[in-house]
Design brief:
mainly alpha, Arc Repressor Mutant, subunit A, two-stranded antiparallel ribbon
Length: about 140
């Protein structure tokens, strides 16, 4: 069970674009910042573009840039753009004869939903410009 770093990657990509604001930035540049394959960076950037956080100009003289001001982008926006629908998920499998396994859905569903709502509320309060101010 691995942790999902998609939100961290999306946030870093947007901070990188904000940092390089006046320069033409390619998906390869973003990939180098993330230390990942350019294909992974392009997939991430396309998800961010679908939600209007970045704009992508294809072609030789193209590139990627923020489509909003950093003060208008929250971590919640990034979270939602990347399709993070749940922080916690119930196990898909388990022993159907085990009373503990059968009880888990009823025991954990509300707890997981409340926890996610609290996390999303915190993400809504963190803006990209505040992170950029700390980067310098």
């Amino acid at each position: 069970m691995a942790a999902n770093s998609l939100l961290a990657g999306g946030t870093q990509a947007l901070c990188y674009l904000a940092y390089r604001r006046k320069d033409a930035v390619s998906a390869e540049d973003v990939a180098r910042s993330l230390d990942t394959n350019p294909v992974v960076a392009r997939k991430l950037l396309k998800a961010l573009a679908r939600k209007g956080l970045v704009r992508i100009k294809p072609g030789r003289h193209g590139g990627v840039a923020l489509d909003r001001e950093p003060k208008d982008i929250t971590l919640k926006d990034i979270y939602e753009a990347l399709g993070e629908s749940t922080i916690f998920a119930l196990r898909e499998r388990g022993n159907p004869r085990c009373p503990v396994n059968r009880a888990m859905k009823g025991l954990l569903t509300d707890v997981f939903q409340d926890t996610e709502a609290a996390v999303v509320s915190v993400l809504a309060d963190v803006k990209l410009d505040a992170l950029m101010a700390q980067i310098g």
